[in-house]
Amino acid sequence: MARDVIRKENVKRYIHTALKPKTASNFVSQNLPMAAMFLKNKALSWACLFIAVQNYLNDPYVKDPSDESTNSAYKIIFALVALGTAYLDLIFPQVGGFVPSAAETVADVAAEAAIEVAETVAAAI
């Protein structure tokens, strides 16, 4: 049989250190305002503002002193920017008014072309 190849001076005892608990609220509070801005979704903007305020109020109780993540006040500001982006059409309303759909435009052009063709044929006769 093979002899024992493990030397006792090289063996170190395993000491378990638990990982820091990671929550989804940090991920959501950082990325939800960006999604609300891109989608211009009012409900999503209000939700990210409420989550940011909740994180701000819970911050003194749950924050680890060694945690170097974004300050909760910045998350509230970012959520307010997302809310402002969602309501941007109230600040700068669209001036153009009614914009016809492509089908209506094609139908109007076809009708005008038919009238022109009929007038040209009538003038030729």
UniProtKB/TrEMBL annotation:
<dbReference type="GO" id="GO:0045048">
    <property type="term" value="P:protein insertion into ER membrane"/>
</dbReference>
<feature type="transmembrane region" description="Helical">
    <location>
        <begin position="73"/>
        <end position="92"/>
    </location>
</feature>
<dbReference type="Pfam" id="PF03669">
    <property type="entry name" value="ASTER"/>
</dbReference>
<dbReference type="InterPro" id="IPR005351">
    <property type="entry name" value="ASTER"/>
</dbReference>
<keyword id="KW-0472">Membrane</keyword>
<protein>
    <submittedName>
        <fullName>Uncharacterized protein</fullName>
    </submittedName>
</protein>
<keyword id="KW-0812">Transmembrane</keyword>
<dbReference type="GO" id="GO:0005789">
    <property type="term" value="C:endoplasmic reticulum membrane"/>
</dbReference>
<keyword id="KW-1133">Transmembrane helix</keyword>
<dbReference type="GO" id="GO:0044183">
    <property type="term" value="F:protein folding chaperone"/>
</dbReference>
